[in-house]
Amino acid sequence: MSEPEAAAPLLRILGVVKRFGEHTVLDGIDLEVGRHEVVVLIGASGSGKSTLLKTVNLLEQVDDGRILLGRADAPGEAAEDITDPRIDADRVRGRIGVVFQHYNLFPHLRVLDNVTLAARKVHRAGRAEAERTGLELLERIGLAEKAREYPDRLSGGQQQRVAIARAIATDPDLLLLDEITSALDPQLVGEVLDLVRELKTQGSTILMATHEMSFARRVADRVVYLKDGRIVESGPPAQIFDAPEREETREFLSRLRDPFS
Ligand SMILES: Nc1ncnc2c1ncn2[C@@H]1O[C@H](COP(=O)(O)OP(=O)(O)OP(=O)(O)O)[C@@H](O)[C@H]1O
């Protein structure tokens, strides 16, 4: 499918359905993520947030619908149907940076090598070039002095920032962040939040899932409330958190203990 207009969204999720056996986990999801937009998925445990991110990253195959991914650096170029079964999944994954709840850094590799590994594999960058870029990235996230350390010498928040640096080292078109703060002590959440906000300022396009409403409020351009695999409501944080239009959204938020501090 061709997307000639410069303003075409970077990501278009069109009627996506995902079933596990009899259980329909994504029930016709339509969602667009604009260039440089930060879209945050919220919803109860089991509502389908992670599964949606996994369909975009091709870790799960859709049962119906399509997902189109454009190029960040070439807005006029045709978006690619990444759900086309003939697609090279590894190549598509190389266009998408992913960070999960658990940082998944390689414990036997120093911080710098963790950051450069993907860049070297995906882009076949030489060691010297990858290290230069890796050090710049570590500088950007304020961890240059940890470049030669092993991950277990870093706090959880620092490890998660390294995982984010690793995800952006390949200069991906899209970043997927799945519950990246839920394994962190509350006092470490702020430093990860600051980094995500910085990425946003620098123009990254981000689709993320979180249970932390304060995080969603502070970083999202748009918040999407998912319930039972359907989008109930989507809008700017002020709408969703202060004046939700749907009763179901209001009920979900009122059940949460997080007071959006
Ligand atoms: N591989 C799988 N096989 C079978 N069922 C699955 C699989 N992965 C997810 N599910 C089910 O799909 C539903 C949605 O799960 P998902 O992890 O997407 O929810 P979530 O909103 O991300 O939840 P949480 O907030 O707890 O991470 C759940 O009922 C889950 O048990």
TrEMBL record:
GO molecular function term, any single one: ATP binding
Span of domain ABC transporter: 11-253
Tell where it localizes.
Cell membrane
Q: Topology with regard to the membrane?
A: Peripheral membrane protein
Xref: Gene3D superfamilies: P-loop containing nucleotide triphosphate hydrolases (3.40.50.300)
The record ties this protein, via SUPFAM superfamilies, to:
P-loop containing nucleoside triphosphate hydrolases (SSF52540)
**A family per Pfam:** ABC_tran
Which top-rank group of organisms is this from? Bacteria
Q: Which PROSITE patterns match?
A: ABC_TRANSPORTER_1, ABC_TRANSPORTER_2
Query: What name goes with this protein?
Result: Amino acid ABC transporter ATP-binding protein
Keywords for this protein: Amino-acid transport, ATP-binding, Cell membrane, Membrane, Nucleotide-binding, Transport
Instruction: List cellular component terms (GO).
Output: plasma membrane
Q: Which organism is it from?
A: Leucobacter weissii
Q: Which SMART domains match?
A: AAA
Similarity-based family: Belongs to the ABC transporter superfamily.
